[in-house]
Amino acid sequence: MSDLTRLTAVEIAGLVAGGETSAVEVTQAHLDRIAAVDDRVRAFLHVDTDGALAAARAVDERRAAGEELGPLAGVPVAVKDVLTTKGVPTTVGSKILEGWRPPYDSTIVQRLRDAGTVMLGKTNMDEFAMGSSTEYSAYGATHNPWDLDRIPGGSGGGSAAALAAYEAPLAIGSDTGGSIRQPGAVTGTVGAKPTYGGTSRYGLVAFSSSLDTPGPCARTVLDAALLHQAIGGHDPRDSTSIPAPVPDVVAAARLGATGDLTGVKLGVVTEFSGEGAEPGVLAAFRESVDTLAKLGAEIVEVSCPHFRYALPAYYLIAPSECSSNLARFDGVRFGLRVGDDGNRSLEEVMQLTREAGFGPEVKRRIMIGTYALSSGYYDAYYGQAQKVRTLITRDFTAAFERVDALISPTTPFVAFPLGARTSDPYQMYLADLYTIPTNLYGGPGISVPCGLSDGLPVGLQVMAPTMADDRMYRVAAALESAVGTLTPPAL
Amino acid sequence: MAAISREEVAHLARLSRLAVTEEELDTFAGQLDVILQAVAQVGEVAAADIPPTSHSVPLTNVLRDDVVVPGLTPAEALSGAPDAEEQRFRVPRILDEDVAS
């Protein structure tokens, strides 16, 4: 195995810029690694070998011409299959978009290209980003590199597994209820959900538009910050994009790496640090809290009484928005069409197309959303969930008057065995118990490895106020400086 | 008591334009019941005077300058369509046969 796949993005960019290796060499090393291990990990739905090598050659040519390269030039990146990529298949893990080659790039992918990163391919995910294990992908599950019989988290399990398997040093995810942070936690990698509106949704296939947030995944906090900086910032093509610069997350990660948290006040969320989590997860979390205190942080306990209603509120709001968003999959403009025999009506073809193209979890959520939005139930379900969303936001606002950031375990349990939760959809939902409040509030959250439980990674979550993404990077980098990065067993 | 009946699930499937099978109806009825009973917990919160939040970013009417910019060509826009004809998306018939004839 080539050493190049073990390097951080910062190290790779330095070697490429200094001419000690070429972007083509780096890219080829990662393509070789994918060829060697991905039949077991199954992180990728599509590997764009030609596109990746062409992008790498372009970086090498720019360097040869004496051009100044950006901080991530020549670094390979894996992209979750939820983002459109011009001419490169984009399936969202669904049969309904099988074979679709979008005619345009998402803003995130455009910015990755502008930064000189090299896109290796598209990663596996739960269909339409609905799930916590990638088992709801229409193309089969991804396997956790720590234990191939276990889930890599979801929905962005492909991106997280690609990092943990050293198939890519950087990856892009999207986080609607925890789909970046929970896979990060269970694969021992770093995953950050930016402030909602801090990263563009243009070209992100919509699941729940008021919650969907693309963001960075990496093996180190600084790499995640550099990727965040590269993809973030205002986008006129997204009407919910915040017209303000990205907080200086890179400087914050560097500051945190000094291991000094003097003057930083952290709140342990009472509701998320007691019952409900596995003992091993709680033990690793509590040890990390002690570590953060040793680094100088002041630790207090903060109660957020409405957080316990976040999961039920989320599973009304997200399905409601999904039932509306997924109406666009009608077998007319893109993707699958089933049953068009010249006799059947448009409506019949639509019903057959959606029945064949969507998997069970997507169907469940569309129906739950349709139910919650129907006239007789709107006030009791969707309307009430929106009010609970207000109360959760107020819990955050009140907490941030007392502390700089909140901390909790990222997820209640470590990676569970494949198949353990698929028969009971609600058991799967519990994986996102601790990550969902942040999405409802719209603030940023990051998961950083904080230890092991029975040989499996545990993540610590840092939650910060909206547009204070830099704070969470500082805390996460400080913890990383004390705990170190986690290395999975050899594949 | 069940929060939702098999007949209601069948109705939801029709509204959702999903031609679900009888077997799926059996499975979904039980699963949706569990989910709906769980999410009904939001009803425990006293929130009568609380304003709803639909969105976390307080932005309204984001407008761009009315300037023509290049868009997709017709060929690009139709490139993913299951069926196209004369630069248009071709759809199955939309009227009943006796109405159309």
From TrEMBL, chain A:
It catalyses: L-glutamyl-tRNA(Gln) + L-glutamine + ATP + H2O = L-glutaminyl-tRNA(Gln) + L-glutamate + ADP + phosphate + H(+). One of its GO terms (molecular function) is transferase activity. Its EC number is 6.3.5.7. GO terms for biological process: translation. Keywords: ATP-binding, Ligase, Nucleotide-binding, Protein biosynthesis, Transferase. The active site is at 80 (charge relay system), 155 (charge relay system), 179 (acyl-ester intermediate). It is an enzyme of class 6 (ligase). Residues 25-471 form the Amidase domain. Pfam families: Amidase. InterPro entries: Amidase, Amidase_CS, Amidase_dom, AS_sf, GatA. Heterotrimer of A, B and C subunits. This is Glutamyl-tRNA(Gln) amidotransferase subunit A. It comes from Micromonospora rosaria. The gene is gatA.
TrEMBL record, chain B:
Heterotrimer of A, B and C subunits. The keyword ATP-binding applies. It holds the Pfam family GatC. This is Aspartyl/glutamyl-tRNA(Asn/Gln) amidotransferase subunit C. It comes from the Bacteria. Keywords: ATP-binding, Ligase, Nucleotide-binding, Protein biosynthesis, Transferase. GO terms for molecular function: asparaginyl-tRNA synthase (glutamine-hydrolyzing) activity; ATP binding; glutaminyl-tRNA synthase (glutamine-hydrolyzing) activity; transferase activity. Its EC number is 6.3.5.-. The gene is gatC. Allows the formation of correctly charged Asn-tRNA(Asn) or Gln-tRNA(Gln) through the transamidation of misacylated Asp-tRNA(Asn) or Glu-tRNA(Gln) in organisms which lack either or both of asparaginyl-tRNA or glutaminyl-tRNA synthetases. The reaction takes place in the presence of glutamine and ATP through an activated phospho-Asp-tRNA(Asn) or phospho-Glu-tRNA(Gln). GO terms for biological process: glutaminyl-tRNAGln biosynthesis via transamidation; regulation of translational fidelity; translation. The lineage of its organism: Bacteria, Bacillati, Actinomycetota, Actinomycetes, Micromonosporales. It catalyses: L-aspartyl-tRNA(Asn) + L-glutamine + ATP + H2O = L-asparaginyl-tRNA(Asn) + L-glutamate + ADP + phosphate + 2 H(+); L-glutamyl-tRNA(Gln) + L-glutamine + ATP + H2O = L-glutaminyl-tRNA(Gln) + L-glutamate + ADP + phosphate + H(+). It comes from Micromonospora rosaria. Belongs to the GatC family. PANTHER family: GLUTAMYL-TRNA(GLN) AMIDOTRANSFERASE SUBUNIT C, MITOCHONDRIAL (PTHR15004:SF0).
